[in-house]
From TrEMBL:
Keywords noted in UniProt: Calmodulin-binding, FAD, Flavoprotein, FMN, Heme, Iron, Metal-binding, NADP, Oxidoreductase
Organism: Stephanodiscus triporus
Transmembrane segments: none
Obligatory cofactor(s): FMN; FAD
Name of this protein: nitric-oxide synthase (NADPH)
């Protein structure tokens, strides 16, 4: 152990082994009074300073060489020797022998005021000599204040000469180290202190920066420049020096580091010296406004202290804002504190903006350019400088945290909302929008400072630079204190080597150092005394008492709340979102807990779930459906464990089940039915019938209906609290008003229509203004106080935004500018185009180009409206969209266009629309017009808007042509809903149309019959109901039409084989609604008509349950029919890729069913797969082969040939089965597999996850008419008026409607309307009901 100071020997011998590494030469033992007087009177030579920045000659003057006389210093620098001796002198200590010295001369190592070793081994020394930190208390107990001053002074001088001697020895009159130490000792014994030379003080400030463990910008420590203001003795002089400091920093663009040093504190005295009460020279004030804070909340207490103690309540002009500079509180030594307001011109704030995100400018974010810190004291050689403001330059993450931290300006959510991001996170979703906002705002901060010519360093460059400097420091200096938590940047922390390279770094204090100074509130108490808090304390105690009482009441209420557990299993996140909505509804009256059934894997997680189930009075299962009525694959393990060995836990437990699925599959919401069946087996009490939400007909209404019934049942349960009763009544009342609320939605939608000429002109103007580098007539530059004449300054609101701006010589408000009010159409469109929030913000949607389309099957299907049955192989180029990855078996979601509707038909539909009340009657809509929809209703959240009105949610803040809107966004061929029929009946001007629409809206049987006959499509709206022409607005369509949703197709390629392409196999979906007319599916028709070069919008969905097994040696059985071969083709390509790499593969078999051998899909490729060895054997079967008996895949599986071949492989424990085709085919094949193996064996295959199904089930529209009704329709056709409207030589949908209405009780309704007989109308309505 290294001992370097004898007085510590006794103490440290029993301590934890820490030691000091300093050497104090105290052999003289003391100096007599006579010698002290002699020292004061003498003129001893002093060390000289380095040439200052302002020296023109670059040399050293004679004045720098001579020692300044104490008489030339301020009176406060000269101390009474007797007073100093009385204060500092303690019983003389025995002079120690010469101690062993540390060769690295770092001085005493302190473990405080920092918490010691934040990271690193405490047993390891800080330098190769093994020196370790000591607590300050351990030193002060053994030393007098004079001894501490002497030791630290000598340590600093030795360090100074060690680092500066080579540079300074050539200067005439420079003292040696021993001479300087002797001089300092004499001064301390004589006056109780000593004075640093300029060079010593500057070097001490630089070394203090070098020793700062929390600073990552220490590479430039030698470039710190001293502004010596120790001669300033008044508050005004100190303030002027601070202004000078800011001016020098701003003059160089804050690219140089300065420190201004004022008078030091008297050694041995407490709260002595000059003080700047502020934490920084530049800071923003904070004003309390109820629960809100205007400004920087960090400074709220300081601002309130200024108001109470100094009478400052905002800037002198009376205009309060979020970015008002705090005044400086300055107190020279021996004087009273004084308030000085900073002129805003001394350091103009930097406006935060970015050219790619112009909407950030509307948030009025700004930050001061100079980080001038005053809160730290500088200690050099035992002298404490309590007022030493210094500045460096900002890193972008420092300003970023100031703007986004919750305890600061908390701008994370406002920025996200300005960017148009969805910030509502549901269970199963990750709030990754925060990372995106932080990235954008970080870029904006860096861009803003660079644009303002203010120095700033990015966090990547900063930490890389520090890591290089740190390693060099450890090589040369052998020690370097580091606080890992402060040095590592808060963003992208692990992207640099310092993240792991510094995880063993040590933190300790070396002097010279910057230490936390005296709090301004301690100074307040000293000079103003404690505040009279008696009344405030009484109020505080009263509030605490009320809070305790309120908390007890809340706990009692919570104790009466029913604990409810919601276990959800979601594939795409839809069920999770509705589970969150259900929890939000029940949370007011229940203690709700959530469990993700797909995420319960470990045994510890399962124990927590079982505990929650045991404590819950009601368990609600919310599940989506995967495949054909199956539970989500990731949740099957959870449900098997829950209903297996833990099934007794649910016995007698109240439960409820809510399922989500699609009625286009034969087994609708099969997952919910499975859970309900399993609950019945364990004797659970299902309080309400399990709910089924259909994605085809709309999930929101079914969800709220089921929730209403659940809450009503919970309100009648034994032990229901009053909150549950109130919730039940509130839901009933809200359901009663939901219809009115939905109908009022159209009033909350504002649609602006711009002509094509207006948009083209604005686009040209916007392009030209961008070329000039400005916005032209509308300047998006932030307007500050300095850019507006004093006579035109206007008030600032509570958010700090200026309420007026000037554009084209016109005065408009900021609110009007942001809302687009009082702007010309050109200005309005330019503002829309310049705002990124108006751009499409769809995530994970790619734009690919069609490379080729190969029609594998093409045959005309006869009938009314003959169409061609097609099956096409489409190859999409992924290079233009970044070449996204995918695996064979994944799904691609295609966003289709309405290709079945020609342009003339679409133009006629648009001509019948109304622009709204603000437009003239003759002003018709056309496809070239552009629309912009906005929604204003604070009571409806963005997530609720997306769930209930998806089309409106997709089109909000999107400037788009009407042709694009109707061609891409709207499902024009979807049927009009019953509720919409009722809404349309209020717009119809004809009594006949009004009666028919009312009948359709009130009678589901008539409505379904009409849907089956003619579809009641939106595109035929004005043909069926002519009186609606010019009555239906675009607002109405946005609130009532459905979006053109994406359709999913299996990927039929392997990326390793086809490269940057994606293949899909699409068969055109042809169906009939009961008549002879043939219709086609929207997306399949679109895809089978694309041409090479066309662009397709899509995204990729991962399907882990249908991907290739991890073990390539396992046997695989492929079963598919028709286009179900698509994903099998991709999997076989993957096997072919493995084969090309000479990897060993297990056997594989294919059972492939198609109509005939002439229509066999990919027969050539199947033969090629067999030749390559990727496919062991293929079994083909045909259902419509001429001269051959029909054979389906399930029949082929039962055949002796296939049974004998596949039976042994089905018994193997690693065989995987892939089934792809229609849902009915999949169920039939499962039955056949059970027959050729056994039920237990097949169940084990399913339970082990070796059965993979990718099924589709598009049910044909119901044909509700029997043969008798069809004959009746035909008889009506014979007598139909030939003068009525026809479509292309064929009977229109209008005629179909008339036929249907004539074959139903609605014909009497029609007659009643004509005769205007109220009684007959009532009877007809009764018939409809």
């Amino acid at each position: 152990m290294k001992i370097s100071f004898n007085p510590f020997k006794k103490k440290l011998s029993t301590s934890r082994g820490t030691s000091s590494c300093s050497s104090v030469d105290d052999a003289t033992g003391g100096v007599s009074a006579k010698s002290e007087d002699h020292i004061i009177a003498s003129n001893v030579r002093r060390p000289v300073r380095r040439p200052s920045v302002g020296d023109a000659t670059g040399g050293v003057s004679a004045a720098d060489v001579r020692r300044p006389s104490l008489a030339s210093l301020p009176s406060s620098f000269v101390f009474d020797a007797a007073e100093s001796a009385a204060r500092l002198r303690r019983p003389a200590l025995t002079s120690p022998p010469e101690p062993e010295k540390c060769p690295f001369l770092h001085g005493t190592v302190y473990a405080d005021p920092y918490p010691g070793y934040v990271h690193g081994n405490p047993k390891r020394g800080i330098c190769p000599n093994g020196c370790r930190p000591v607590m300050t208390s351990e030193v002060t107990e053994l030393e007098s204040p004079r001894d501490v001053l002497l030791r630290e002074a000598i340590e600093f001088v030795k360090l100074y000469y060690h680092e500066r001697s080579d540079e300074m020895q050539g200067i005439d009159g420079f003292l040696s180290c021993e001479e300087r130490i002797s001089e300092i000792k004499e001064s301390i014994y004589a006056t109780g202190t000593y004075v640093h030379t300029f060079d010593e003080l500057q070097h001490g400030a630089q070394v203090a920066w070098r020793n700062a463990p929390k600073c990552s910008n220490r590479k430039y420590w030698q470039q710190l420049k001293l502004l010596d203001q120790r001669m300033a003795t008044s508050n005004q002089e100190i303030f002027d020096s601070c202004i000078k400091h800011l001016s020098k920093a701003m003059s160089c663009g804050v690219s140089e580091a300065y420190i201004t040093v004022f008078q030091p504190a008297t050694p041995g005295k407490v709260l002595d010296g000059s003080y700047i009460w502020n934490d920084q020279l530049l800071q923003y004030a904070a004003y309390g406004n109820g629960d809100a804070v205007i400004g920087d909340p960090k400074n709220l207490r300081f601002t309130e202290m200024l108001k109470e103690r100094f009478g400052w309540d905002g800037p002198s002009d009376g205009i309060k804002g979020a970015h008002d500079y705090l005044p400086l509180i300055i107190q020279a030594r021996g004087q009273k504190p004084e308030l000085f307001e900073l002129p805003r011109e001394c350091a103009r704030p930097v406006q935060i903006h970015h050219p790619r995100y112009p909407e950030l400018s509307s948030l009025n974010m700004q930050w001061y350019p100079v980080p001038a810190v005053c809160a730290l004291d500088l200690t050099v050689g035992g002298i404490l400088y309590t007022a030493a403001p210094f500045n460096g330059w900002y890193a972008n993450t420092e300003v970023l945290r100031d703007l986004t931290d919750e305890c600061r300006f908390n701008m994370l959510i406002p920025v996200a909302e300005a960017l148009g991001m969805e910030i509502d996170t549901k269970p199963g979703e990750a709030p990754l929008w925060k990372d995106e906002v932080m990235h954008i705002l970080s870029s904006a901060v860096y861009h803003s400072f660079k644009s303002a010519k203010i120095a700033m360093i990015d966090h990547h460059t900063l930490i890389d630079m520090f890591w290089t400097w740190y390693r060099e420091e450890m090589k040369t200096r052998k020690y370097c204190p580091v606080n890992w938590k402060w040095v590592i940047p808060p963003m992208s922390s692990s992207t640099n080597r310092a993240y792991l390279g510094l995880n063993k770094a040590q933190e300790y204090t070396l002097k010279p150092a910057y230490l936390l100074g005296t709090s301004p509130f301690q100074l307040e108490i000293k000079y103003f005394g404690k505040r009279d808090t008696s009344l405030a304390m009484k109020k505080l105690l009263h509030c605490i008492w009320l809070a305790i009482v309120f908390k007890r009441c809340i706990n009692r209420m919570r104790g009466r709340k029913q604990p409810v557990l919601i276990a959800y299993a979601s594939v795409t996140g839809n069920a999770a979102r509705y589970a969150s909505d259900l929890g939000a509804i029940l949370r007011s009256s229940c203690n709700v807990s959530f469990v993700d059934a797909c995420g319960v894997n470990a045994a510890e997680d399962m124990l927590k779930v079982l505990h929650l189930i045991h404590a819950a009075t009601l368990v609600i299962f919310v599940s989506s459906t995967q495949g054909n009525g199956e539970l989500p694959s990731l949740a099957r393990k959870f449900f098997s464990m829950l209903f297996g060995k833990h099934g007794n836990l649910l016995s007698g437990k109240r439960c409820a089940v809510l399922g989500f699925g699609s009625s286009s599959y034969p087994i609708f919401c099969g997952a919910a039915s499975q859970i309900s069946t399993m609950l019945a087996k364990v004797n659970a009490n299902e309080v309400v019938p399990h709910g089924k939400c259909d994605s085809v007909k709309g999930e929101a209404l079914s969800f709220y209906d089921w929730t209403t019934s659940l809450v009503a049942k919970m309100a009648t349960m034994r032990g229901a609290n009053p909150l549950m009763l109130k919730l039940s009544s509130d839901i009933k009342a809200s359901n009663a008003s939901s219809l009115v609320r939905a109908r009022n939605m159209v009033n909350c939608v504002k649609v602006e229509v711009f002509t094509a000429k207006e948009v083209e002109t604005a686009a040209a103007m916007s392009y030209m203004t961008q070329r000039r580098g400005s916005m032209g007539t509308i300047s998006r530059r932030r307007i500050s106080n300095d850019s507006i004449d004093s006579s035109e300054r206007s008030t600032i609101d509570s958010s700090g935004k200026r309420s007026t701006i000037y554009s084209s010589g016109r005065r408009i408000t900021v609110e009007s500018f942001l809302n687009g009010e009082n702007l010309t159409p050109h200005e309005r469109i330019m503002r829309i185009m310049s705002s990124s929030s108006m751009r499409t913000t769809k995530k994970d949607i790619f734009e690919g180009q069609v490379n080729s389309r190969e029609d594998i099957i093409s045959r005309v299907v006869n009938g009314e409206g003959s169409v061609t049955r097609k099956t096409s192989l489409i190859k999409i180029d992924l290079k233009m969209c970044g070449d996204p990855p995918y695996q064979p078996g994944d799904h691609v979601r295609i966003f289709p266009r309405n290709n079945a509707i020609d342009l003339d038909q679409l133009q006629m539909f648009v001509l019948h629309l109304s622009r709204g009340e603000a437009f003239e009657v003759g002003d018709d809509c056309c496809l070239d017009d552009h629309i912009l929809a906005s929604f204003k209703n604070e009571s409806i959240s963005r997530s609720e808007l997306a769930a209930s009105w998806p089309l409106l949610s997709k089109c909000i803040h999107e400037l788009m042509p009407l042709e694009y809107f109707f061609d891409n966004q709207v499902a024009l061929e979807s049927p009009i809903s019953m509720q919409t029929c009722l809404d349309l009946s209020q717009l119809a001007t004809s009594d006949k149309d009004r009666a028919v629409l009312t009948g359709l809206g009130n009678n589901s049987t008539v409505y379904e019959d009409l849907i089956s006959m003619c579809g009641l499509k939106w595109i035929d709206l004005f043909k069926i109901f002519p009186s609606l022409s010019k009555q239906v607005t675009i607002n109405f369509l946005l609130c009532n039409m459905k979006p053109n949703h994406a359709r999913s197709y299996s990927i039929s390629s392997c990326k390793e084989v086809v490269g940057s392409e994606l293949h899909i196999v699409v068969g055109r979906h042809i169906y009939s609604r009961g008549g002879s007319k043939k219709e086609v599916g929207v997306c399949s028709n679109f895809l089978t008509q694309v041409e090479p070069g066309d662009e397709i919008s899509f995204n990729i969905e991962s399907t882990p349950s249908f991907q290739y097994p991890l073990d390539p040696l396992c046997p695989i059985i492929f079963i598919c029919t028709g286009t179900g071969f698509a994903p099998i083709r991709g999997l076989l390509q993957k096997r072919s890729y493995f084969q090309s790499r000479s990897e060993k593969l297990g056997p594989s078999f294919l059972i492939f069913g198609s109509r005939s051998s002439s229509e066999g899909l990919f027969h050539d490729e199947i033969v090629e797969f067999q030749k390559q060895g990727a496919l062991t054997e293929a079994f083909m079967c045909y259902s419509r082969e001429i001269g051959v008996k029909k054979e389906y895949t399930q029949d082929k599986l039962r055949s002796i040939e296939v049974r004998d071949r596949l039976g042994p492989f089905l018994a193997e424990p690693n065989t995987h089965i892939f089934i792809c085709g229609s849902a009915n085919m999949a169920e039939s094949c499962k039955v056949s597999l059970c027959e050729i193996s056994s039920q237990d064996l097949f169940d084990s295959i399913v339970a082990s996850g070796r059965l993979h199904c990718d099924v589709f089930g598009a049910l044909l529209p119901k044909a509700r008419y029997n043969s008798t009704r069809r004959l009746s329709i035909q008889s009506h056709q014979k007598t139909f008026n030939p003068k009525e409207e026809h479509m292309g030589g064929k009977i229109s949908s209008t005629n179909s409607l008339r036929r249907v209405m004539n074959t139903t009780p609605a014909n009497s309704l029609r007659r009643a309307v004509k005769t205007s007989q109220p009684s007959a109308l009532s009877r007809s309505l009764f018939e409809l009901k």
